[in-house]
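Hi support team,

I've been running sequence recovery on a batch of backbones for a student project. Most finish fine, but this one hangs at about 90% for roughly twenty minutes before it completes. I'm not sure whether the input is malformed or the queue is just slow. I've pasted the structure tokens below so you can try to reproduce it. Let me know if you need the job ID as well.

Thanks,
M.K.
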């Protein structure tokens, strides 16, 4: 009897993602992976980049066949976290190699190359990475799209020679088999100004015409996330409370989660949920994280917007922020999240 109840609860559980989760973005990524094309998704902090990564890499609900069909088992998405990069070229090659071997651990390993012995550890790791890639792409007809998550610091600080080696890995017969998906908070050519990337990098050329803005969740994905959170707690929130959370967060994944947890811990006072929550430390820290991920000129434009002091020179920046989902433009310009807008205004007081 208890087994039946357990099975019933498991079946009834609300999934974290629906089959249509971020369907435009997932479809774009999967099509690019199958064609060996690289791309970059640029989004503000906390918009759910890690959830897309989890969808592609782990596929917890087996949704990928919807996009990849029969090719599902032969398209791999190893994940490299730019936040854990140690700042060295050798460190990046080790991350790529570890991510790749862990993703295809169900396959046999390639035989070692006894002909070449590398003197330096950096060269040895790179040769091992290249050997694995060539073996998978050429001998096993597999497709690899490395997910380079939170790659801002690597682009900004990594030597150009290191970045160019990422392109070189494709040049040995893997052009249609090996690609990269970059997640960044800012435009790559701005991050790589010191190199410079633009006009000087074959790696940048791989995705320079395929850079897309990753906005907040659409209403359906936002609703599904809250249903999933609400089902897993002892005292679920009411429908109206969830609706208020949605309105305040504006589709921002991390703000949704923080608001949900804060509301469950203590409901807002009679002063109103906006003023109540914008004073909370967790909310302010997340809003500051979003703001800190923007360029200084964009931050300044947002401060002027909060003061109603926007200049003609700000129009280009505002248009860019609208495309990235930070602002909305209808009859007038509004903040993507009332909470984020209230936070910016509070900094100007």
């Amino acid at each position: 009897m208890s087994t039946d109840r357990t099975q019933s609860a498991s079946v009834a559980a609300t999934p974290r993602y629906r089959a249509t989760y971020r369907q435009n973005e997932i479809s774009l990524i999967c099509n690019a992976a199958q064609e060996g094309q690289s791309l970059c998704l640029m989004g503000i902090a906390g918009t759910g980049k890690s959830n897309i990564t989890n969808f592609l890499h782990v596929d917890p609900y087996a949704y990928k066949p919807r996009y990849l069909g029969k090719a599902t088992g032969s398209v791999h998405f190893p994940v490299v976290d730019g936040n854990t990069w140690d700042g060295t070229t050798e460190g990046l090659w080790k991350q790529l190699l570890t991510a790749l071997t862990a993703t295809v651990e169900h396959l046999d390993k390639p035989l070692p190359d006894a002909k070449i012995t590398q003197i330096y550890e950096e060269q040895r790791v790179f040769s091992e990475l290249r050997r694995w890639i060539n073996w998978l792409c050429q001998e096993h007809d597999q497709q690899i799209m490395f997910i380079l998550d939170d790659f801002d610091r690597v682009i900004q600080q990594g030597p150009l020679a290191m970045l160019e080696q990422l392109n070189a890995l494709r040049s040995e017969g893997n052009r249609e088999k090996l690609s990269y998906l970059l997640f960044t908070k800012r435009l790559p050519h701005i991050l790589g100004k010191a190199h410079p990337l633009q006009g000087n990098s074959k790696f940048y050329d791989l995705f320079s015409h395929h850079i897309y803005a990753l906005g907040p969740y659409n209403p359906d994905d936002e609703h599904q996330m809250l249903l999933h959170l609400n089902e897993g707690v002892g005292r679920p929130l009411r429908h109206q409370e969830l609706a208020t959370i949605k309105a305040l967060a504006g589709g921002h994944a991390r703000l949704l989660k923080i608001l949900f947890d804060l509301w469950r811990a203590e409901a807002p006072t009679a002063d109103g949920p906006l003023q109540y929550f914008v004073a909370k430390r967790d909310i302010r820290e997340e809003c500051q994280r979003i703001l800190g991920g923007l360029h200084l000129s964009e931050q300044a434009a947002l401060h002027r917007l909060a003061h109603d002091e926007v200049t003609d020179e700000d129009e280009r920046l505002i248009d860019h922020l609208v495309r990235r989902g930070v602002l909305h433009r209808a009859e007038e310009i509004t903040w993507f999240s009332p909470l984020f807008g209230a936070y910016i205004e509070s900094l100007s007081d």
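--
Follow-up from support: It reproduced on our side and the slowdown came from queue contention, not your input. Strands lie at 39-42, 75-76, 79-81, 143-149, 178-184, 211-213, 327-329, 333-335. No action needed from you.
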